[in-house]
Write a structure and sequence with these properties.
Layout: E1 7-11, H1 14-28, H2 34-43, E2 48-54, E3 57-71, E4 74-86, H3 95-109, E5 114-118, E6 131-132, E7 136-141, E8 156-158, H4 163-171, E9 180-181, H5 185-194, E10 198-205, E11 208-216, E12 224-231, H6 234-246, E13 254-257, H7 271-278, E14 286-290, E15 293-297, H8 300-305, E16 314-321, H9 324-327, H10 334-339, E17 345-351, E18 356-359, E19 367-371, H11 372-379, H12 385-391, H13 398-404
Parallel strand pairs: 4-5, 12-13, 16-19
Antiparallel strand pairs: 1-2, 2-3, 3-4, 3-9, 5-15, 6-15, 7-13, 7-14, 8-10, 10-11, 11-12, 16-17, 17-18
Helix pairs in contact: 2-5
Length: 418
């Protein structure tokens, strides 16, 4: 048998490639059931997928899907890089990296201003310009300790058949800085279908589902995991939390991400006491804070234009380095390299009531030097300029750092699992 590898990159041919893609999902542990295998067809039906073939067989795939992400008070076109899958025999060949770069080029061409992804760990996606997103809180708690005064009404049972209505409630939720919306009906239904032993409970106003929770159950007493929580306003969120509290007669532990609109720790009775009592137990109680996603700018001018800054104008020379340029230098990415509008180089940035970024130089302005990774983190307020000067190697005069520290909105929260 020949040891020579023939590698090709192309777009997914969903009918012909699905058997091989299912095999990859089985290998990496993403699928262990025929139910998930079937749902994959819908999952890959929305968006654009690039695949890498080794000797004619799909061994790596990267899906790009489209939605919006809020910067300050404005929604920007978003490209989400998702479902990065690499088989056992395709590791160490940079195929996922090349395909991710390929899909980012397509996203930029499609008009996306920003890209995000959920990371399996830090480091890999930095090579294509991604910077780490903001911390989010995940709680595990005894639902009986929720300090919610109201009593929830009797909910309605929901199933995958109400997927469109649940998606509508997710899309209608109040938006905050950093929030993401992916209005993809087939993908959303596929994700619900992939959840084993899952169920939904919700509330209607006439024929409109106004708020709901979708959970994965485990055993008689839990723990339960909240996968999706959609609501139109704060009253709906409070009723959902009261609904979780009502399950406490039987369920001893619930795990969920903190909703973007509340500080959940303040809504729990004696959280530190309950965590100490439940430590290392089956029905654990804890709080974890971590960054699970990354983001990067694709269109600098559009992202700057979304800022609503009312302070004194700040102008500076921005010198950007975009790591993706090195990845796109690969011989098999020549088409993508020609189409890519690189962010590397010099930009004159003005922050004010109308913020702008223009490809130009102005020697009279103070200079800020950084990677696209770091500037993306700065724009979304993941970290301040002074902090990035310490952690990310951002370089700028101290007076410019001080001016920038008060400009960008902080605490972005996607509020959507991608």
């Amino acid at each position: 048998m020949s040891d020579e590898l023939h590698i090709d990159l192309r777009d997914l041919e969903i009918d012909a490639d699905m058997p091989a893609l299912r095999r990859v999902w089985r290998e990496i542990g993403w699928s262990d059931s025929k139910q998930t295998d079937r749902a994959m067809l819908d999952f890959y039906a929305e968006g654009e997928t690039g695949v890498a073939l080794i000797n004619g067989e799909v061994e790596c795939a990267v899906l790009a899907q489209y939605g919006t992400m809020r910067l300050d008070h404005h929604d920007l076109p978003l490209c989400v890089v998702s479902a990065v899958t690499t088989s056992r025999i395709a590791r160490g060949l940079s195929l996922a990296q090349k395909l991710t770069a390929r899909q980012l080029v397509k996203g930029q061409q499609a008009g996306a201003a920003v890209a995000t992804l959920g990371m399996f760990d830090q480091g890999f996606y930095n090579k294509v310009g991604f910077g780490t997103g903001a911390y989010t809180n995940e709680f595990a708690f005894d639902p009986g300790l929720l300090d919610v005064g109201l009593k929830a009404r009797t909910p309605v049972r929901l199933s995958v058949e109400q997927a469109d209505q649940m998606l509508g409630a997710m899309v209608a939720r109040p938006r905050v800085h950093g929030s993401v919306v992916l209005n993809l009906p087939r993908t959303f239904e596929a994700e619900l279908t992939m959840d084993d032993n899952a169920f939904g409970l919700g509330y209607y106003d006439g024929s409109r589902l106004t708020h709901f929770v979708w959970m994965r159950a485990k055993g008689e007493n839990g723990p339960y995991q909240v996968k999706w929580m959609g609501y139109e306003n704060g009253d709906g969120l409070l009723e959902l939390l009261a609904l979780l509290k009502s399950l406490a007669d039987q369920v001893y532990s619930i795990r969920m991400h903190e909703p973007p609109h509340v500080q959940l720790q303040c809504m729990l009775k004696r959280p530190f006491r309950s965590q100490a009592i439940a430590e290392k137990g089956k029905f654990y109680a804890d709080q974890n804070t971590y960054a699970w996603y990354q983001l990067r700018v694709l269109d600098l001018a559009s992202c700057l234009g979304a800022l609503s800054y009312s302070g004194p104008d700040v102008a500076f020379q921005l010198r950007l380095e975009d790591p993706i340029d090195s990845v796109l230098a690969a011989e098999d990415l020549a088409v993508e390299r020609a189409a890519w509008r690189s962010l590397s180089g010099d930009w004159v940035v003005t922050l004010g009531r109308r913020s702008t970024a223009v490809s130009a130089t102005d020697a009279a302005l103070p200079t800020l030097e950084c990677t696209v990774n770091s500037f993306s983190r700065l724009l979304w307020g993941v970290a301040s300029a002074s902090s990035l000067a310490v952690s990310d190697g951002l370089k700028a005069p101290s007076h410019l750092l001080e001016s920038l520290d008060g400009v960008f909105p902080a605490h972005p929260n996607p509020g959507w699992d991608f």
